[in-house]
Structure formats: C-alpha cells, structure tokens
Design brief:
The structure is a single chain. The chain is α/β, with parallel strands linked by helices. 40% of the residues lie in helices and 16% in strands. It is built from twelve helices and 18 strands. It has a six-stranded parallel sheet. Strands 14-13-18-12-11-15 form a six-stranded mixed sheet. Strand 5, helix 7 and strand 6 form a beta-alpha-beta unit. The longest helix has 37 residues.
Length: 420
C-alpha cells in the first residue's frame, strides 16, 4: 500500500512538474536563440504579453525570456514580482487619441534644475519651424495630433521620453515631431531616450533617422542627441535578426513578442517525467521503442570540461557511486546511435544536480530570477560555438557510467527485452 500511495503522489506531481519544466525550458531556449541571432551589442526587449497563451502565460514568458538572455520586459507585473528591468514606449492608440494642442492638459513642465514652470506647448511650437526647415519637411505635412500626444507624454515622463513615430508617417511627421519635443526637453535640462519604429524597412529607416539625430545634434549643440536610442519591433523573428546583421543599420534595441513567447519554430518540447526509483528500488520503462527506454535509479549528473574551459560531456551516474574527482579516469557508455564505450580523464568537473524540493518540502533556498539568469548565461558561454549554431548544431554528448549501464542491461535481460 505504501508503494502504491507513493506512486500515486508521484503521478499527481508529474504533470505539474512536466508543464513547468517544459514551458520554462522552451521559452528560455527560444530566448537564448534570439540572443545569439541578435549578437551581443543589441539590447532585446520582451514584448509578448498580448501574444502569450493566457494571463499566466504572459507572466511566465516574461520571466523565462529574461533568464534566456533578454535585457528587459514591457510587462510591469513581471518587473514588480521578479525584479526584471521594465521598459516601454507609448501605444498607437494613445497617439491617435489626440487631435490638436487643445487636448494637451496640463501644458506646463518644470525644468530639471529650476522651480519655475515652462509652457512646453509654446516652446515646441516655437521650435517646430526651425526643425522643419533643418530637416526639409513642410510644416503642413506634420500631424498636429501626434505632436500634441508627444508633448503630453513628455510632460508626464520627461526623463523617459521614448515614443512610437510611425502612427502616421515616419519621416514626414513622426521623426520631426519627436525631434521638436526632444529638443524642447533638452532646453529644459532633460535628455530624451529615443524612438521606436514598428513598421516599414526597419534597418533602412534606422540609418536615415540616425543621420537626422546627428544633424540635430550639431545644429542645436546637444552632443548626446546623435546617440539617441532607436528601437524597432514588428513581428520580428530569428530570420529578421540575422538579416539585420547582414544589413547596414543603426538599431540599438529590438523588441520581440509573438515569435518569442509562442515559440512557433518548436511549439512543444519532448520532455517527459518517469519513475526511476521507488522505496530505494530502481524502476524502468522498457517499451518497444529504444528511444523511449528510461534509465533506472536515482542519479547524479556531472558536467565535464576540456582544457579550453568548454563543456563537452554530461555524465549520469547512480547516486551511490563515488563522486568524480579531477585526475580520475572514468569509463562510460556514450548515449546515442552508434556510440560505444570510452575512457575519459577528468580535468574539470561540476556537479549539476541540486535538490530544492524533497518530500513535499523546500529543502534549499530557492535562487532568484537574477541568479538563474546569471547561471544560464554563464553556462551558455561555456558551451562550444559548434553546439550553439542556429542551423545544424553539433549534438552535445551525454554518457552514463559503467555501473549505470550494467544496471540498465540487467533490467533488459530480466524482462526479456530484445533491445540489448
């Protein structure tokens, strides 16, 4: 009866544990692939809250994307709960809700270093003709509602002025309006953050906008203006990031939503949870398919490293086997079709398995999201480039000790399995 009850408890935990590990591994791995495709210099923002499956799915995706290598999230709740850096722009709906300067309430803003308020609307209206002349943009082409929205947003967030510029027309309205408000803020002692593009040829537009920023920087004597951030989004996927790397661009930040949190290239992960030991006795699942045979017994997982510091093998040993030590020669069986027995001298080894949950209780302090992110990013650095290729990566090797291999074969013989 005790064994039966333990088995039922394990079965009830199985599905929940599988779901948690599957989603976290899937999204974090997808995020890591985006990080690799983007390269180390581009900042990545997770924008997937509206696209993830369900409210909790959005929150989970924010957490796992950050662990996988993204820099920030637009999900404010994820920032509050997990300490993930939060960023964002302003919605198209906010911009399109303004018609004219009459809609700007309030109109005033205190300078960064003074108490006397300034009418920001008037300041922008005075600057606008100069900006249009400098950028060779007809004043009548600008959308006044967009300008009003930018001014209103700047009054609320003078230290975090980053807006969408493609609600109406990027070059004939959005960028000139942004430059006008950003320069007005600069005269009051504030430094704008930048712009976001959400449509069109993102790479080509970023180059043109960077030149505009440089022109304004020189003309108005604000050196930092040429380095304003350019953020892009718009259904971006791995292919988009690789194309950016092949094109001239001035993109600083990339926002990814749908293709990050829904994992369309691989919508599920082949993760399973099986019983390997019950009351100290090893258990196995044999089946008719060799790739579904489980490895019996409680185990310890070791990661072995080569002389260059890269990991090259994960070794599974039974829990009661002596720990691996540097300098030890170990014989092991490689897993995989056509693999056999090899002998390896341990030059550096790390124990991978740590218990956090035992007998329905937390048995070790749980790491924070920041700790998990740091660990995962360090682990990726120790993985060879051949294993991180986005196309046709070299499979990473996994092996089992001779003792575990003998236990496996004994089970097969005892059960008359033909897969020996």
């Amino acid at each position: 009866m005790d064994g039966y009850l333990l088995s039922q408890k394990a079965t009830m935990q199985r599905d929940r544990n599988s779901q948690l590990l599957l989603l976290s591994s899937l999204v974090a791995t997808n995020a890591a692939r985006f990080r690799i495709a983007a390269g180390p210099d581009k900042k990545l923002i997770e924008l997937g809250l509206r696209r993830a499956q369900g409210p909790d799915g959005g929150l989970s995706a924010s957490r796992y994307s950050y662990i996988g290598g993204f820099d920030k999230t637009s999900n404010v709740l994820a920032g509050k709960l997990y300490g993930i850096p939060v960023t964002g722009t302003v919605a198209h709906s906010f911009i399109s809700s303004f018609n004219s300067m009459v809609d700007v309430k309030p109109r005033t803003l205190k300078p960064a270093t003074e108490d006397k308020v300034v009418d920001l609307v008037s300041l922008c209206e005075n600057l606008l003709p100069y900006v249009c002349h400098l950028l060779k943009v007809p004043l009548e082409r600008l959308n006044q509602g967009e300008l009003a929205a930018f001014i209103s947003y700047a009054i609320s967030f003078p230290k975090n002025f980053l807006v969408l510029v493609d609600t109406y027309n990027v070059m004939w309205s959005g960028v000139p309006n942004f430059c006008t408000v950003a320069l007005a803020l600069a005269k009051l002692g504030y430094q704008a953050v930048g712009i976001r593009l959400d449509s069109g040829d993102l790479a080509q537009q970023s180059v043109v906008i960077r030149r505009i920023f440089q022109t304004c920087s020189i003309e108005f004597q604000f050196p930092w203006f040429m380095s304003l951030s350019i953020t892009v989004s718009n259904n971006i996927n791995e292919k988009s990031l690789l194309q950016f790397n092949q094109q001239e661009n001035s993109i600083d930040v990339i926002g990814v939503g749908t293709h990050l949190v829904t994992c369309p290239l691989q919508s599920s992960l082949g993760y399973v949870c099986k019983l390997v030991e019950l009351n100290g006795s090893p258990r196995i699942k044999l089946t008719e398919d060799t790739n579904k045979i489980t490895l019996p017994g409680r185990k310890t997982v070791y990661r072995l490293f080569d002389a260059s510091g890269h990991c090259f093998l994960d070794l599974l040993a039974l829990k009661d086997e002596p720990s691996l030590v540097v300098g030890q020669e170990v014989e092991c069986q490689m897993l995989g079709k056509g693999e056999g027995s090899v002998r390896i001298v341990v030059s550096r080894v790390e124990t991978m398995h740590q218990d956090y949950f035992r007998e329905a209780k937390i048995c070790s302090p749980l790491p924070s999201v920041m700790d998990v992110r740091e660990y995962s990013q360090c682990s990726l650095l120790m993985l060879g480039e051949e294993h991180k290729r986005l196309s046709k990566p070299k499979p990473y090797k996994v092996a089992i000790t001779e003792k575990l291999y003998r236990l496996l074969n004994n089970f097969k013989i005892a059960n008359g399995s033909s897969h020996i």
